Amino acid sequence: MPYVYSGQYLHIDLDTAAVAVHPIDEATVRRFLLGSGYAAKLFHDTLNPHMAWDDPASPLLIFNGLLSGAFAPTGCRSAWCARSPLTGIWGESNMGGHWGAELRFAGYDGLVITGRAARPVYLWIDGPGRVELRAADHLWGHNHYRVFDQLRVETDPKAQVACIGLAGENLVRYAGVMQGGIAHARTAGRTGMGAVLGSKNLKAIVVRGQERPDYFDPKGFRAVVKARNAQIKDGAYGLSMLGTAGSVPNAERMGDFPLRNWQDGSWPLATQISGQRIAETIFAKHTFCFACPIGCGKTVQIDAGPYAGTQGHGPEYETLGGFGGLLLNADLDSIAHLNMLCNDYGIDTISASGCIAFAMEAAELGLLSSDAVDGLDLTWGNAEAVIACIHRIGRREGLGDLLAEGVRRMAQRLGPAAEPLASHVKGLEMPYHDPRAFVSMAPGYATANRGACHMETMTYYEGYGIEIPGVVFRPGANHQQARLESQGGGAMAARYQDFQSVFNPLGLCKFIERGLIGPAELAELVNRALGWGWTGEDVMLTGERIFNLKRLINGAYGVTAADDVLPERLTTLPRPSGGAAGVLPDMTLMMGEYYAARGWNPVTGAPCPERLARLELA
């Protein structure tokens, strides 16, 4: 039977430099797919909850999705999974770009990495059976852009390189893994997977391959892909033209954009840092991930002014929300520069901006002295101080050593008065869609398996009027009003989580949802590619199974219903103005709905035996 996926993964033991090839069990793939689903199954089956994230024996699991490397729409995603240095629970970060497809071309679907190299190394995979650990002493101490270029010289000019910068080496708890160089930087950004590589003395993973997937029904698969690509291009036209940054003005109008560490309601200056302004001023070209019909990436270039020389991948919505609205910084050029720096150091822009916002408010309240902030002027909107903070974070110098710990640990160090300033769930800093503007996001954030994560729920899509077939919770509703209503929000969050949970295990980007790609459409792609008999119901059931498996992992780490909460600020402090003024999520109502929909014990937060049996997780 021809396979889209290769059917094997590598286990690399950095202690001994041993490399072993392991088969991928088809029955397990049918239940959990690949990507973060298969990784979670392997992780769960060998889980030792007492093992620290930086224990050499603690595994890093990197798996492609089922269709990664295929020509399915956006078939490029890879999942990077381990115990998170930031949260202490299930850590997962997802990466687009071209690295995952190249790993498939090299003949592998994933990597399991254990141990710690005695000296810095990088992993070079040059097709099936050609796997080598090489010295990386000459790369240690250098950032992503330089390492990317150098490793292409040392290996193959067309190789795909995933590497860490100084942030990963210095164990910044939210360090990411980078790929693509300065031209098309993409990242596995959240939960600190770059620090996991750093703890293992693994600087980079370089892949090159010549294999291509085979398909059960090549002609039928090609026809379906062609039709879906046209559908996606039409629905995602705005993303193609302006990228995620194009949604900034509408987000501000809806009361969705984060402002002054979540305290303000409206900000007229948001238009100055939007995708529309990028297109008018610093835009250079569009970029595409592998097999992507959208091309949401935007390369920028600044030729004059204080940030002249800034170039590369332009800031996304989340980066503009964090280094823009959250800090009240309306200088677009400075945000593009900050984005370039974070991509080079390998720093998650969401967590970094959340930590800097915390520090700004703490300084304003007198909780941080001038000495504690290295004499920096941490006033709202001071871009130069923010830039200085990024350099300090990447190097863990001075104030940066505190900022590198994340807001939960920062608040613990500063004492009870600092707790209200720390916006996180389970230790992961809040992303930048406000749950007071789309209240169904509130239970989604509270229960997301990796902590505060907008990508695990994405009910704000429906709030913006996108009705995904087979998923839409309130079809035909006045979504402008319904987004502010708590009734039904808990069950809505659970449904969307089930749907979102299959995308990375399939290797697909969630932006194809803009083209109204629902469960039935996903099933059709899989069936044509692999010959399965999947239905839309199977898609949703698989997503529910994967989501609950990760909940079981977190349960082993001690997560209970008591941890399924939002920052106090977002449940007690309404936005004072703007499109979500006066709105607060009714967490008691929605969490009750959520646990009922999930079949979880509302006291312990654990999945009930009956639900686990139905999901074949008993």
**Approximate helicity band:** 25-40%
| CATH architecture annotation of the largest domain | 4-Layer Sandwich
The strand count comes to 17
Query: Order of strands across the biggest sheet?
Result: 2-1-6-3-4-5
Strand % is: 5-15%
Low-confidence spans: pLDDT under 50, at least 5 residues?
Answer: none
What's the CATH topology label of the largest domain?
Aldehyde Ferredoxin Oxidoreductase,  A, domain 1
The biggest sheet amounts to: 6 strands, mixed
Mean pLDDT score = 97
Instruction: Please tally the helical runs, counting DSSP H or I stretches of 4 or more residues.
Output: 26
Q: Quick one: CATH superfamily of the largest domain?
A: Aldehyde ferredoxin oxidoreductase, N-terminal domain
Protein structure class: alpha+beta
Integer-rounded radius of gyration: 22 Å
Distance between the termini: 31 Å
Q: What is the 3D form?
A: globular
Q: What is the domain tally?
A: 3
Structural features, described:
With 618 residues, the chain is α+β, with helices and mostly antiparallel strands. The protein has three domains: 8-208, 4-Layer Sandwich (Aldehyde Ferredoxin Oxidoreductase,  A, domain 1), CATH 3.60.9.10; 236-428, Orthogonal Bundle (Aldehyde Ferredoxin Oxidoreductase Protein, subunit A, domain 2), CATH 1.10.569; 433-501 and 535-614, Aldehyde Ferredoxin Oxidoreductase Protein, subunit A, domain 3. The protein has 26 helices and 17 strands. The model has no long low-confidence stretch (mean pLDDT 97).
